[in-house]
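QA checklist item 7 of 12: single-chain prediction sanity check.
[x] sequence parsed
[x] length recorded as 205
[x] structure emitted
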Amino acid sequence: MILPLFPLNLVCFPTENVNLHIFEPRYKQLINESWENDTTFGIPAYIDNKLMPIGTEIKVKEIVNVSPDGEMDIKTKGIRTFEILEFHQTLPDKLYAGGSISFREDIDNPDAELQEQIQERLQNLYVQLGVVKELNYQRTFDIAHYVGLTIQEEYRLLQTDNEKDRQVLLINHLDRIIPAIIRAKKIRERMQMNGHFKNLDKLDI
């Protein structure tokens, strides 16, 4: 299958809602054709000056605004992941890129115990950050942008085609960053205490 491609320096996940501002002529053409023909396109991640082989198929949900020069704000939604088999800088008679792709199968096998562990760690993370946020989620992709992953780590999550494995990746990540946040808070508290008189606990020796 040939899929129009819109490489971006970000990772889009299946089921994710993505708002985009379109201003380049090639992507104006791509979006207009996708909207008029009710077709999809792909967003492969462009990381460290390199086009990654895994991306997400995208559907245009709404064109919110179009300026006189054709720039537009659009709402889109991720559908499923794909792998680029062959990249084409431009498709025939088009301004935009495309690729021969194959869609990837995803194993939707979340583990209830692992999900509970993620919920507990998220609660701890947001408490440490002083953030009030609704914690209900269905899949790891729903929260992947909100747990402090680097773009490389987000891409690794996108590459992983098994929900249980993605749960383990998130748990390992949260187990790394939460202690680091706690240490940073303690350092900040000590810096703020510098020069102040301190009340010391009496030691029972």
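[x] summary fact logged: The first helix runs from residue 25 to 37.
[ ] second reviewer sign-off
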